[in-house]
Amino acid sequence: MQIVKMAAPMVITRVIQLVSKNSLLNARERLTRLCSCAVQRRTYYEYDTEYDTDIPKDLEDIVNKWSRVKNTLGPSPLKDEPWPHGEWEPGRSKRCGLVAVKLGMMPVWTKSGQRLTTTVLQVLENSVVKYTPPEENTLNPKYGCLLVGARNADPFKKSLLYSEQFKEAGLPVKDKLTSFKVSSNAKIQPGTPLHAAHFRPGMYVDCCGRTIDKGFQGVMKRWGMKGQPASHGVTKTHRKMGATGGGGTPGRIWPGKKMPGHMGNKMRWTLGLKVLRVNMKHNILYVGGSVAGHKFGYIKVIDSILPKNRDPEVPPPFPTYYEDEELEENLLDEELFDFNDPSIAYPEEAES
Prior knowledge:
- This protein is an alpha+beta fold.
- Helix content is 14%, strand content 25%.
- The protein has helices at residues 2-21, 27-36, 60-70, 160-163, 219-222; strands at 98-109, 115-123, 126-132, 144-152, 174-182, 193-194, 204-210, 215-217, 261-263, 267-279, 284-288, 298-303, 330-332.
- The termini are far apart.
């Protein structure tokens, strides 16, 4: 208690010292230094790890860790009466998306022998955390909002305010939270797990990821400009852009002019990617083409918004895929070659 009582006078003394010492500094620097003394520390969970039963010492760490984690989970809303499932309406229904982890790229082959490049996305522990109806969605009253969490995280590394969001849904703390706009008939009950079978082979999706940070780059790398000649009177301007429009009227650089600057580290969408394969065992999506982002980075995957791909011929799982539906381990597109099948088949000759 003595230390707590002395904390306030020590802070006041420190503030007085800073004011007297930095009296010649401008107001902005003084305000920055004074505010640094009053920074609040993040609050974390405090768990009750006491237990009455006697256990061996080799299991003490396991029981101790579980007693901490179980206190973060509340009653699951899935124990209540399940929500009714809506029906798919072409042109109106808008489904929820998934949060995947980019594992890398790999090739696949069609039945005709054509080689295709795919991006491998793994759906790790996706669950619905919260649903906001359209009436309460102030940003866009036309659609509801589904909050989806991905990849279980250590609750001791998350703040108290962040961890409280998962108690009501009865879910463990997630590492990534993403919101999706959904129509009123595509709502999903909080606590429902989401799987890779939410998308089926043949469907088209849009993927969003954070591009790789390239730092400050010139116009040749950033915008693909040609640059200047290598010789014939050119000195020290081989990779520069040249004229910037100063000879026009008015002679100035207009906003949006392509010039050197920071490249990468921005969220970018890739539209109209075809789902070629779905692995049910490991929850993996094989998407044709490349997706922006680092390896092991988070990728947001939704139904394609392009007009030609918006309404598929076969209705997708609506509002999502549930585990009571039995599916094969590997779902392949019709054009994709299955390596479990023989590559060459010869007709049987009749015995003479």
